[in-house]
Amino acid sequence: GLDDEVLHFLYRTEQLVPIGDFAFLPETLEQVVATVDALGDGWTVSAFREALGTSRRHAVPLAEWLDARAITRRVGDRR
Known about the structure:
Oligomer: single chain
Number of helices: 4
Radius of gyration: 13 Å
Helix content: 55-70%
């Protein structure tokens, strides 16, 4: 519900991070990375979704974002 100019300002100033159709606070993404660290190797999107307490609709773009930044690496159905 934010005005486009406000939204783009928040993106430019890195107060929000666009991921897929969503925008996340940097602090939230830090928590996501901490969750991944706690999961260890070989987790599935389902396990990731459960650990975050979110839906698959949010978990998949977050997992892809992690892959794109080399925080995780997808191998088959696991990361």
